[in-house]
Amino acid sequence: MEKGSRERSETERVGKDLIRDLVEALGPESVRHAPEDLRVYAYDGYRLGDVLPSAAVLPTDAKEAARAVRICRDHGVPIVARGSGTGLCGAAVPEDGGVVFSFARMNRVLEIDQRRRRARVQPGLINARLSEATKPNGLFYAPDPSSQKISSIGGNVGTNAGGPHCLSYGVTTNNVLGLEFVTNDGEVLRCRQDDAGYDLTGILVGSEGTLAMVTEIEVRLRHLPEETRVFLAVYDSIEAACEAVSEIIGHGLVPTALEMMDRVMIRAVEEAFHAGYPQDAAAVLLVEVAGSREGADEAEHAIARIAKGGGALTWRTARTQAERDALWAARKGAAGAMGRLAPNYYIQDATVPRTRLPDALRAVEEVAAHYGITVANVFHAGDGNLHPLLPFDRRDPRQVEAVVRAGTEILKRCIDLGGTISGEHGIGYEKREALPLVFSTEDLAAMVRLRETFDPRTLFNPGKIFPSGASCAEVRPSLARTGGTP
């Protein structure tokens, strides 16, 4: 038998043994292995992968997840944890086969502690459902990515997701108090933010499933504000809108949300949602303030004064809950509205200092013009987190190449302005080659050593976050000097 045939035969045997052991441990209803069933696990919101996993398991609790992890470890196959598959960096897509762990069945609110304002949830719980469950208690969960109606809290933990309200309430890591997780040896452990010693909770949030598998999350809840108000400031230039953002924050005012859209995006969302955004505007600021009635009054007057003094053509207050909901629905549905411009879009996720927003947006426009593509901007202006969307048709290889090159160039330009390559979407597969643009080889070596401490065999989500190929070779000399291994 030729070598290639022997290798294929051995791979098939290992795959059959793996599936047999998983079925015996979890039951046939919790294991998927038919190719037509596995196809759904080969893509996420960013990437349509061409690598199918060997199997997918759907555990119902941490014990089942741990049992399946031990089986994967014994067979030496990779493990990829997956929430709703809405990620935008390819983090939940198998890179080298293995087993995908879908948490679709672990989707419950386990406990709501009203007195201590916290909740325990399973990782497959859809983000928006937590606030729906806590609303009768007068509480809500703050992190609200635009995908919150479909993304899972476990996935949000993996990428340290933010959302429009992170300006005031912080990103996911600021709202996670503790975790239950499974190690690469299949042991179930817990950590809490206030534990003595190292902050393991902080390390695991944002690690994109490369260190451990999260099976339970304890989160911080907040009181629903007495008053919430939403405003729309309209500008005839995006520079004027950016200056207003810096002025608002510079005066010590921190709205609960401060979002911006440019002309291209405004037209797309207004045609899709008819929320009342003026289509002739160059830019709009969507502003929200929340708190007591007296505090909301003061914030409204102060922000309106700055906005109008900075050149706002109009300042509009959403008078009813329906108006507020309509404005927010259009903002959070912005990505979906891109379908009116092209069959596909590529979204970037870079962050720059607020004072450099005008420079960053000019850079985005210059890059788009250079590559002959359209760009639509919608972003969290309050914390300088840009989300330029580049529409294209993936059936045209030239367009695909153009948006990929443009996306990389946008990242580089944002770094030159003192920014970084991700604000909330993570690194995953998409940006792993860009990591050396912001970290030295010594930094990367330290990160690799941390990963190896948690997962020496690199079973958890291999091929993600860290550079591959030549970039990895650059890390090796530093690792060698410190006694590590790549």
Count of the separate structural domains: 5
Kindly provide the name of the CATH class of the largest domain: Alpha Beta
Give me the CATH architecture of the largest domain, please.
Answer: 2-Layer Sandwich
Q: Low-confidence spans: pLDDT under 50, at least 5 residues?
A: 3-11, 482-486
Q: In terms of structural class, how would the helical and strand content be classed?
A: alpha+beta
Report the CATH topology name of the largest domain. Uridine Diphospho-n-acetylenolpyruvylglucosamine Reductase, domain 3
The gross shape turns out to be globular
The residue-averaged pLDDT reads: 93
Radius of gyration from the CA trace?
A: 23 Å
Helix content estimate: 25-40%
How are the strands of the largest sheet arranged? Answer: 15-12-14-13-18-20-16
Describe the structure in your own words.
This protein is α+β, with helices and mostly antiparallel strands and 486 residues long. The chain folds into 5 domains: 100 residues, Uridine Diphospho-n-acetylenolpyruvylglucosamine Reductase, domain 2 (2-Layer Sandwich); 115 residues, Uridine Diphospho-n-acetylenolpyruvylglucosamine Reductase, domain 3 (2-Layer Sandwich); 109 residues, 2-Layer Sandwich (Alpha-Beta Plaits); 76 residues, Alpha-Beta Plaits; 44 residues, no CATH class. It is 38% helix and 19% strand. It contains 16 helices and 20 strands. The protein has a 7-stranded antiparallel β-sheet with strand order 15-12-14-13-18-20-16, with helices on both faces. Strands 5-6-10-8-9 form a 5-stranded antiparallel β-sheet. The chain has a 4-stranded mixed β-sheet with strand order 1-2-4-3. Helix 1 packs antiparallel against helix 3 and helix 8 packs across helix 10. The N terminus and C terminus are likely disordered.
